[in-house]
Amino acid sequence: MAIRAVSVLLPARRLRPYKPSPRSSALRRLSTLRNVPVLYPTVDVCPSPSCDCTPTPAGLDINYKLPLAGTKPPYAQHIVICTGRDDWSSRIEDEEGPNLAKELKTLLGPKGQFHNPNHPILITNASFLTTAPSREHLASAYLFPSFQHVPHIDLSPSVLSHFVRSAILANPPQSLQPPTKPTLTHPIILICGHGGRDQRCGILGPLLQAEFRRALERSSSQSDVASQVALVSHIGGHKFAGNVIVYLPPGFRVDGEVAPLAGQGVWYGRVEPRHVEGIVAETVGRGRVVKELVRGWTEWGIRGAGK
Prior knowledge:
Elements: H1 25-30, E1 42-43, E2 77-82, H2 100-108, E3 121-126, E4 138-144, E5 148-154, H3 157-169, E6 188-192, H4 199-219, E7 229-232, E8 244-248, E9 253-254, E10 257-258, E11 264-268, H5 273-286, E12 289-290, E13 294-297
Helix pairs in contact: 4-5
């Protein structure tokens, strides 16, 4: 259907000019995977929206030539840090003040005491409001694939080291109560909006965030959709903006049955506002992967947990 053009006033944001960078050999190999087998129910094309959408801004230099399938970076866990902000320094570990991302990357990065090259951990900041008390050495975060919200994380070195050992590296987590039961029962949608790193996600991210919130409000009786949709820092692949991760909780059901995508995450790329309603309907509503937009998916093997 025809999309009505509307004027969009973007908030002032700190945007870093786009500078093309050479593709790594790994990404070159991944980007050639045109026929990656999809393990979950699929729909080939994203459905057209049933109502007017915000138009996609022109001139963003999105790469529409490379195939998307296989471009999701490999990771075993995802730590999403609640900051209450919607943009950050180009490197989130360079943010001033108490910085959970910096502390975790120090412990888990290549030179960290807990680094494991066979168990990569993705660490991002998010615009979710922190639930930690207003004390400098406390933070809060979401953990995937345990689908846990941790309201208070102490940044003191000895306490944080214990948290990493018991809540992140242990399988199952030992310091979370109860240790194996997910605390998240609704989908979580994360959108790269890191304007301090690249202007494409910095411009598209807020537009997609607003569109996802509207689509979720229309599709369900839930009123607190702000707790489900957040902007996040760099997740890789700015040239494929908008980049979106949809996490569906363990026990997620479709037609009364636990869906194959329950307890998993789907990565989408080249998402425009016109795709949002279709992603909500197909992935959040029916547990299906939209093949034309998919970059990859997780295979965490916890589909039936939390029933």
